[in-house]
Amino acid sequence: MESSNNNGAGLLSLFLYTMQEYDGIVSSVPLRTRDDLCSDVVHCTSRDYGFEYEEVSWAAVSIRMMLQRKYYSNGESVQLKRLLAIAERDQRFDGVKVAEIRRRLKSLKHREVELSLPNGKVVSGHFKNIEDVVYGGLLHADYDKALRLRSFPKDVRFYALAPFVIERERLIVDFKELCLSSGVCEIGTIEGDRAPIAGLDVLRGEDRLIAKSPYWANVAGHDAMDEEIEKTVDALSEDDKNALLVAMDFVEMLKSEPLDLKALRSVVLRDYWADWDDFGQASEMIKSIPAPGASTHVMHEGGAEYAQVKILPKVSHAWVTNTPQVLTGMYLVLLTKRFGMWKVNGIMNSCVENGEVERRS
Fold it and tell me: How many angstroms separate the Cα of 276 from the Cα of each of 270, 308, 343?
């Protein structure tokens, strides 16, 4: 669902989306704490939390500072204070829990820090000091802020700011959990009937002329003529032709009812027979692909003895492209060459494909 919804419900859904992104990023740069050492951040230092300064820890805190900006700055659509006001008017929310998060937010704002510079000037407040970090050399480059950063030991700045940053993280995480438990819906998606495509070399100037496979109309390319398909296949090496034929035969076998296990095993590496079991799971995967079409561009990632054949959904008519693009929703049939013969060793869903995309049919 496409929406520019800016009402209360829309902003809460938007907040949940931003928190999905937040969680995904910060999980890659964890900052471990020892909460049992300190129950009240007013009297805590970063050392009490179990933090030890090192560059990776500073990076983890810096990333959180940047990501948290939208939750604690005036004018932002997902400012926590604004969202709490929305939640207070929303009957789905437990008023006591909302009030507790607001109390913690207010308490956090009253916990201040001062960093005294060599010239005697003082930078007061967590917010001001975080602004120096974020705008001095991360999101922006501000000379005065950078000068203050250069004039104060980074490890001491870390010990002063890290507990505050972690407490702010706890607030937004707890509010996220409250939103989820209160039935706030996640943000929707843009509705449409075309595959999302990323063009990698648009200067080639190839137009989007695919009409007979409308799902792929976003691709820079055109509907293929019969002679064009024949020419494309003829241009393949014998090795690639064989790999393509094995992959296509395998797909057709998986679509058959009942499954011919003997025929399927004849095109699969013996080493992997046990992994395929009765081929039921693979058959369900292939049957779930609407109007599958195989790419004539055989990949060889891993070397000449390995091949990957792409299976695309909703190919109602062959089409051709000569522009590098990233496609979504593909499947890969994985093959290995043994004793001069191509055998299947796997099939997988591939969310994206990078690199030169040539001809498909």
Answer: 10, 18, 13
- Residue-wise pLDDT tens digits, 296-329: 999 999 999 999 999 999 999 999 998 888 888 8
Alpha carbons 174 and 156: distance in angstroms, whole number:
28
Number of neighbouring beta carbons within 10 Å of residue 230:
12
Q: Look up residue 37 and give its two tokens.
A: 């050492």
| Contact status, residue 64 vs residue 25, Cβ threshold 8 Å | no
Stated pTM of the model: 0.76
Q: Which segments of 215-260 does DSSP mark as H helices, in order?
A: 226-234, 238-255
Burial class (CB in 10 A: 0-12, 13-18, 19+), 344: buried
| Helix 80-89, helix 154-181: angle, nearest 10 | 20
CA–CA separation, 301 and 322 (whole Å) = 20
- In eight-state DSSP terms, residue 195 is -
- At 309, give phi and psi (nearest 5°): -110, 125
- Determine the Cα–Cα distance for residues 136 and 110; give it in Å rounded to an integer: 24
Tabulate helix, strand, coil % of the chain (nearest 5). 45, 15, 35
Question: Please, how many CA atoms are within 13 Å of residue 201, restricted to the half-sphere of its CB?
Answer: 12
Counting DSSP H helices and E strands in the chain, the numbers are 12, 11
In the chain, where the domains are located: 8-181, 198-360
Q: What is the mean pLDDT of residues 328-353?
A: 87
Token pair listed for 335: 């093959």
Distances (CA, A) of 187 to 4, 6, 90, 190, 349: 10, 12, 18, 10, 25
Classify 329 as helix, strand or coil. strand
- Report whether CATH 3.10.450.280 matches the domain 198-360: yes
CA 234 to chain centre: 39
